[in-house]
Write the structure tokens for this entry.
Amino acid sequence: MGAPDVGKSTIFYRLVGRRVKIANYPGKTLGKEVGSFVENGTVVEVFDLPGIFNAENPRDEDERLALSDAMDGNYDGLVVVAAPHVMRESLALLRLVARTKRAIFVINMVDLARPALDEDAMSSKLGVPVIYVSAAKGIGIHRLRAMLAKGAGATATVPDVDIEFEGGLWRAKLLSRPAVAVPTLLGILLLTLMALLFLVDGTTPFGDSPVALLPAMEPLLDRIGNMLVVPGNALLTLLLQDGIWSGVSTVLTFIPYVAAVAFFMALYEQTGLIGALASGVEKLTSRLGLSPRSMLMAFMGASCNVPAISAAKVLWGRRSRALTALMIPYMPCAPRMALFIIIAAAVLPSYLVPLAVLLPYVATVVAALLAAAIYRIVVGRPQAVERLPPTPVMMPNWRIVGLMTWDYTRDFLYKLSLIILGVTVFLWLPSVFGPGGITLNVENSWLAVAGKALEPAFAPMGLPWQISVALMGGWIFKEVVIGILAAFGGLKLLGSLSVASALALMVFLAFYSSCIATLAALARVVGLRLTLFSAAMQLTLAFVFSYATYWLVSLTG
């Protein structure tokens, strides 16, 4: 346990390696990581509790839960992790827990700044065992493992002392200056987004990437799907190709997004870079009710919303975590950019396509600001719990980065893959069943009936039902939208749309609904009620903004 940005998670992964699972607090979306290791034949189970910054006066539910768990939980002892930049807060936490619980005090980042006293002198001064470690370099980890296996720890009345350090944290202090922090953070956000688009999705504002992973995967997935043919049974073939394999391939195409975003999140956590920049830009981001980490996750959502929302679980503060997760779906993901380009290219000259693609992003920014104001009323404005000193900047430990990336990806596969597969098959059923029973003609299916029933809602934008019906596929993935457009002849109709209709469709597509994977990830972070509220809010704002777009463009045209 300890304050945020002291390296708790890095020490945890150093101790337990890959044997990690998430245990949620009862009735809460907040969880703690659980792992174990074996030392000299002794099995030691380790729990990584949420961050605690205000030990003496916890202001957030996360802090209260973690403190209650630490004090009332059935633990053999507590390890309080400290770092040079939050020593006062760490000592306050140690004083609180060591009164009644056996405690060990771990001072991390000693490769950057080391206490003036040695470990034995510090232990005598504080009254509890003290060990100096560098989680990034592995210094002191073996001694900590041995100490935990022996059940070391002590209760004590920890005095109010000042600890002097030898060494400096000049890089963090430099990056925390607003004049440096703001452009640096913006640069990191844009470079991260472009890296995700260039290496994973392949669709960038500057054209297609020749080295992206997904364009290389899709032909192979299509070939496998085409092989799933049952001779003489068209319905079973459709089930295998458009139902089951469509769900499997959707999961497989999500994996690169999830792994890439997880990698960058782990990298920035390991280097301490975002923590160092946080204090310099917090005044700016707090006006939106978001922390600097929240802004990073929102930008990463432009590649894929799912891992960005999942990563929001590590944010400190229940309200900050909920608000960030609720805002991420307003960021159009990379697959939607491909749809914007298809629509714009169908009705506009090529030189106007890049300009037209910007419109849905402008609309989402305005809608997100409006939604944020509403969400702050519903969720509450986040407590100012992240006003931490700048985090020291250090080189990452690539093994830990890899382990954290794998855990994020594995968590996605374990908890969301079956949901995606099941919903894909469920949404396939209306395309093969209709009022007359089983049909192989999609225009006689219940999907067509639903599309015609919804036509009055889209008619004011000049959209025929053959196009609007494809929007239902957005709950799965972009390829499903394109496939439904092709099945109903919507792709051919795109060229006949007016500019106003095409732009209105792009704005609607930008944030009308999240895919099922995003909704499932959101429900895990904020709960089902807020997820349903968010879905209704997105759909309402999408109609309002798309109607407004059609009306304004029609007036100017």
The mean pLDDT is 82. The CA atoms of residues 290 and 320 lie 7 Å apart. The chain is about 60% helix and 10% strand.
